[in-house]
Amino acid sequence: MIAKHVPMKSVKKSDFASLVRYLADDQEKHERVVYTSVTHCESIDLSASVIEVTAIQGMNTRVESDKTYHLILSFRAGERPDDNVLAALESRICEGLGYGEHQRVSVAHDDTDNFHLHIAINKIHPTRLTIHSPYNDHKTLGKLCAALELQYGLERDNHQAVKVGSENRALDMEHHAGVESLLGWIKRECLDQLQAACSWADLHRVLQEHGLELKERGNGLVISDQDGLMVKASSVARELSKGKLVDRFGEFNSQPRSGNTEGSGKKYEARPVRSRIDTTLLFGRYKNEQQGTRANRTKEWKESRAKRDRLIADVKSKAKLKRATTKLAGGSRSEKKLLYSMTSQSVKHELNKINEDYRRERERLLKQYQPLQWTDWLRREATKGDQEALAALRARVVALGLKGNTVSASGGELKRTGVKADQDSVTKKGTIIYRVGASAVRDDGDRLKVSRGATREGLAAALRLAMERYGTNITVYGTADFKAQIVEVAATANLQLTFTDSTLERKRVSLVNPSTITLQESNDGSTDRRRRTGSGAGGIGSSGRNAAAGHDRGRGTFESGFTRKPNIGSVAVISPPEARNRLRNLSELGVVRFTEGGEMLLPGAVSGHLEQPGAQSDNTLRRPVSRGGLAPHSFAAADQYIEEREQKRLKIFDIMEHRRYNKADVGVASFAGVRRIDGEFLALLKRSQVILVMPIDEKTANRLSRLSIGDQVTCTGIGIVKTKGRSR
Predict the structure, then answer these.
(1) Is the pLDDT of residue 366 over 70?
(2) How are the residues of the chain apportioned to helix, strand and coil, as percentages rounded to the nearest 5?
């Protein structure tokens, strides 16, 4: 969970009513406003609370700063606390900031990739009428979030600030707008050369080669491009602050940009951030459309103003003519005064109507020709059905896919299921949100997720959408309860699909046709019992025919998919190893033996008078014991974690390469930790500057948690790690 204060730079733009109006606006989306709350107001109605808060703020006439505190609580992707937890989080954070007694309105939005809660707080105390502005609120918010994450079991985030405010704002712009910032471009293109400069002349030369200029502003230095866009020099690097540069090179020497110097031809242009696909042509479409939008808006706005001025001139001309007519007409002074008053009222009414029409027309033009950021334009085009724009959104580095209880599909024949799903919106990561009844289904191009109201109708719609778009081989990720619901829904709706997990598929088949499976399991169970009692326990009271029948029916597998042990021997004439070469009674005679398996003498069967009753272990003599192994979703969790770390490695250089552990990695490695992703445990093993990610079970994870980082472990297979103690 991340808490962020959104400051209002211009006090004139600060308006509590406008903020609440924006938060409560559903923007014609069903999945936008999902939770509202009003605290410390006489009415729980949003409109009434806005009037009350505005009145309280108007009582304090001395304050010249912003009277509204806008706070956002953002949660990890796939995390959606219930309403009671949201209310508790809001209360605890507001009390920690000192706003426990202040009026506030909270609205939660779920139309983005991350569920988030907006809190609009009145900074004016309702009774004392004093303003409260918390000091160093980012540190307070970090401590509160860390404590609340532990208390309510939320996914943990890093709350330590490692960058200055300007760097964070530049990263926010790149993340939300999808366009490279000037600050990020300077760091990537010429930061090393700037730090290596030996004089003011070298510094100015490097900047001019990249179309930049260094100049004084206030008490510091700024770097500007040819269009006048500026960033603080100290934000690019602390070594470029004015104080440190003056200490190195002496007093600042300005050098204006030379118009004839072309340099290396490099200059900053607002371009899309790195992506997995080429978006050059798509970005060209975007720029051309935005230029046309500005031109059309200017043209129509000019025509609208000209129309308004023309109508106003006509009204004034008519009024002037009416006044002249009244002046020349006969009548008493009172009659003329009444006519003049009627003319003035008519003019005022017509002018108000003209201005109101112009205001509505201006709002229409601003809404119709609103300039869009790159990602917002991609969202709009993807909503219209543009597949290239949708692919560009999904190819962004930040797009990591859906998490939690999800459904994916592959292979098989695409089927027309006729599911009725209305597209609600598209997020900045390319996730399409569909409305199906009272539920919402999210599709990121690889997986589908029922994000809210996991009803049977929503789960069935998710399966049908997966079958229509990706195939009939369904893979389910998430908790055991979610998988059970998916199987039950698939069987009840009689969907023509197949689960990749054999356990889920057997369960689905048993639910679809329970009579056949019950009869088969009954027959198999009786055969198994005959094998254990008649053929294996002793030959007295059982015939060779029954034993042979049990042996024949014991071969192969059940139709439901469970494997049975083959090679169960028949009636034997040779005694078992523990009964050989000694005197025995008739009751000790063994009648069943394993004719093809290895024979061995267990320590407990050796006579007590022997000097060394123990035996050396020989695994080749033992029959292999079948284990359940790791489920497919364990490897999916490993791939998800690896993808997330690899995406972060592109931004943070000190993160090692991560890849999945395979059979070729058997040997000694260093223990690097244990992670839990979507309920699955992963062991991190370090070898040659590479982190190997191994899916493990819960018992192995508990055993590895006792180790220290850097301890040596031995890997013997997939999910098998040996330590100094007992391995599993």
Answers:
(1) yes
(2) 45, 15, 40
